[in-house]
Design brief:
- With 453 residues, the protein is mainly α.
- Helices cover 68% and strands 0% of the residues.
- It has 15 helices and no strands.
- Helix 4 (91-120) packs antiparallel against helix 14 (411-434).
- It starts with a helix and ends in an 8-residue tail after the last helix.
- The model is unreliable at 14-62 and 64-81 (pLDDT under 50).
């Protein structure tokens, strides 16, 4: 029922936008935007709406080429052939939707960081039940004691935290409670503006379906998170094993968060920058060469991040706290000790850490190779700037990983390392978005080489 209503609203929105776009956009753009040249005078209303939205979000950037990112994407467009805007209800609508999506992506980023902090402080198993809508926290001493008694029945208390004080329990409880409620607040913060923009007709059918899929995945995160926590509340098979959540379920939970974040970031960028920065065919050809390298490297960055989730799930960061060797060996003797063989890559502490080391170094070398192979290409300054920042972030992330390992995973460094992984992934998303192919109408209007003033 909800799906049919959503499609109906989106279709009405699309029809209203088509009928009103010509008249409303021409009124809005009677005045010339202050940051852009007179080349815009021949552009259509929809194209100017898209340009205005992106300009509004980057108006505080002081570097001229950063301002030109949006200028170059639109100044040579004479019609909207081949360009499908995600928001067509005018510049104000585009600005509002863009800010909302960037804010949602930033909220998901903070959720990932808070989740890492919760895991590193061993707070994730402090709440032994779960309700979809959430509950109030304990408000009296009696309620706190009741929650503490529930926790005392868990394997984590019996094997790791036996004798814990009520004050220490309150700390880990509040950490997990904050993580859960922050996620629920994100759902409300996303759903309310989404409903408003649908009613106002700001969102096209294509954008609405994409955001509905991301919202559904976000709603499922609570269920995935509880499914993960529940595995840590079960008695370990061995009496010597420490209770912890399933590495498979933890990886599913973190990977879903990464997918939601990347989807929101890509969509927000597409709303405010419908066309990539391009002022000449030479820059377009250079960007295409970068794209061919950036896409597989982005996949490698994602795989490395997922392998980090298996490191966390197996608590492998607290083994072999030396670098570059693993203890006294380059490769531990027990890397293939499990049966069946495939289990070693997901459950064997030695193999999981070795894999993550290899993938991290391969990622750094690949991004370094991207920088080296593109240094002589004719590229837009924004693309070159992104490549430089990406290799710098990759080097910082490897440094954080090594520091976290040899320091025996302190909370501060571990949290920074997890945030660094998402930052590096963000840069790769931005690089891929900036180097995508322009629309046919823009390609037809570009000169062979960049015009010099």
């Amino acid at each position: 029922m909800f799906g049919r209503q959503l499609v109906s609203i989106l279709r009405r929105s699309k029809l209203q936008n088509c009928l009103s776009n010509g008249s409303s956009s021409s009124r809005v753009f009677n005045q010339r935007p202050r940051f852009f040249s007179s080349e815009l005078s021949g552009s259509s209303g929809a194209q100017k709406n898209a340009l205005y939205g992106f300009r509004s979000l980057i108006k505080d950037f002081h570097k001229p080429w950063l301002r030109n990112m949006s200028t170059a994407a639109f100044t040579t467009m004479k019609n909207k052939e081949g360009l499908k805007l995600l928001v067509t209800a005018g510049p104000r609508a585009q600005k509002m939707v863009g800010i909302w999506l960037f804010g949602s992506a930033a909220w998901v980023f903070s959720m990932v960081v808070l989740g890492g902090l919760t895991r590193l402080t061993r707070s994730g198993l402090s709440m032994t039940d779960w309700k979809f809508t959430g509950t109030l926290p304990p408000l009296s001493d009696e309620e706190w004691l009741a929650e503490f008694e529930k926790y005392k029945q868990s394997p984590e208390y019996k094997r790791i935290n036996k004798g814990m004080s009520i004050e220490d329990f309150k700390f880990i409880y509040w950490m997990e409670y904050a993580h859960r409620m922050w996620g629920r607040a994100l759902g409300i913060m996303f759903a309310l503006p989404f409903s408003y923009f649908l009613r106002k007709g700001y969102i096209t059918l294509r954008l609405g379906l994409r955001l509905s899929a991301l919202f559904s995945l976000g709603a499922s995160q609570g269920l995935i998170g509880w499914w993960m926590v529940k595995s840590g509340l079960e008695e370990p098979k061995s009496e010597y094993a420490q209770p912890r959540v399933s590495p498979y379920r933890l990886t599913a939970h973190l990977t879903s968060a990464f997918v939601i974040y990347c989807g929101l970031l890509w969509t927000a960028l597409s709303v405010v920058m419908p066309e990539p920065p391009a002022e000449s065919l030479a820059w377009v050809h250079g960007a295409a060469k970068v794209k061919r390298l950036a896409l597989p490297i982005s996949i490698l960055v994602g795989i490395t991040a997922v392998s980090g989730a298996f490191v966390a799930g197996n608590d492998a960061g607290r083994a072999y706290n030396t670098f570059p060797m693993m203890g006294d060996n380059w490769i531990p003797d027990d890397v293939f000790s499990m049966e069946p063989f495939i289990r070693n890559f997901f459950e064997n502490t030695s193999t999981v850490q070795l894999d993550h080391r290899i993938l991290a170094i391969a990622t750094l070398m690949s991004i370094g190779g991207l920088w080296w192979s593109t240094r002589k290409l004719d590229l837009h300054p924004a693309v070159r700037f992104l490549i430089g920042n990406t290799i710098g972030m990759a080097a910082l992330q490897v440094t954080l990983g090594i520091s976290t390992l040899i320091s025996y995973v302190p909370v501060s460094l571990g949290t920074a390392h997890q945030a660094g992984a998402l930052t590096l992934l963000s840069l790769m998303v931005l690089l891929n978005h900036t180097t995508r192919r322009p629309s046919m109408s823009l390609l037809k209007s570009l000169p062979p080489v960049t015009r010099t003033p």
